[in-house]
Design a protein that fits this description.
Layout lengths: L2 E7 L6 H11 L3 E4 L3 H4 L6 H24 L4 E4 L4 H9 L6 H19 L2 E9 L3 H11 L9 H20 L3 E6 L4 H15 L2
Parallel strand pairs: 1-3, 1-4, 2-3, 4-5
Amino acid sequence: MRGKLFLIYGVHGSGKTFLLRPLAEDYGLIYISTDVIDEVANKISSEFERELLFIQRSNESLVESLKLLESGKDVVMDFSPLQNIAYVKYWIKDKRKEGLIKLIESSFSSTISRIRDCGRIIHVFFVVRDYGKIIERIRRRGRNVEEEAREDYIRFINEELSKLAEELRQKGEEVYFIEAELPIFERMKEFLRILDRTSR
């Protein structure tokens, strides 16, 4: 029996990790984090170098997920490698480097296509409506990564993810949404509903 891969999307502070790490353990899902922000805070000042590290971690996580799906395990990947494309677009504003963005996009899409042959992919988006509330959450965490709490950064990533969600829906992919500003127990209920729907 093939496993399921839940690809999770959402800006920093949208409540993905706080919710999903304990839930995955409670419901027998393998939790994989591709977030390296704690590792790079205070160590790597270049935003572009940080994005390259994110991309490397995402590729490693995809390979790990592929093996787990082949063995019938269900996996939660926090966050989806496809989300890296939005971050790279934010940092690479130079039109001459658009080819690099397309290359990264093609690489992740190709790997995810391979995964689809081994399991079922479910996309879950944490949608942000209230930027002020998300910025407040980020500041409470106290991580020393300045751009995380910038509204223009959060807005750009959130809008790019909205476009991606629509593209995936048009392709017939399984796409679900959770409101990021909901209280933790409401977000938990929403994710459990998604688990229930996708278990059928």
